[in-house]
Design brief:
CATH class: Mainly Alpha
Order of helices and strands: HHHH
CATH superfamily: 23S rRNA-intervening sequence
Number of domains: 1
Number of helices: 4
Strand content: under 5%
Distance between the termini: 33 Å
Oligomer: single chain
CATH topology: de novo design (two linked rop proteins)
Largest sheet: none
Shape: elongated
């Protein structure tokens, strides 16, 4: 696995997996409230879906299918940003730096998928 000096993984399948894992570990640290339970379900789903759809894109049957799956990955990254921001702004927790890191990673993933979309538009 290739990494740069900031420990960012260039293997996008592994990077999306690590992101989903970190989200799950963060969720475990939250106070057990009804709102957190519902928001956690949403962000767990969207964070895992980023990588799952990327893997599907790599196994796609056509360029059109690849493009569609990458767009879903980007959509799920955007959704993850939303849920993480909501959790961050409605909780008092000691993991503020971690959630900010997760929001930043989701933003970077969104930008990566946007670039892939731009370069792979079906004709």
């Amino acid at each position: 696995m290739i990494q740069n000096s900031v420990n960012k993984t260039y293997d996008l399948e592994e990077r999306t997996f690590q992101f989903a894992k970190e989200v799950r570990l963060f969720i475990k640290s939250l106070e057990k409230t009804i709102a957190n339970f519902e928001d956690a379900k949403q962000v767990v789903h969207s964070s895992g879906s980023i990588g799952a759809n990327y893997i599907e894109a790599n196994e796609s049957l056509s360029k059109k299918d690849f493009y569609y799956r990458i767009k879903i990955s980007r959509k799920e990254a955007k959704e993850s940003i939303y849920w993480l921001r909501l959790i961050n702004e409605t909780n008092k927790h000691s993991n503020e730096k971690l959630v900010e890191k997760l929001i930043q990673e989701s933003t970077e993933l969104k930008k990566i998928f946007s670039a892939i979309i731009e370069k792979s538009k079906p004709v």
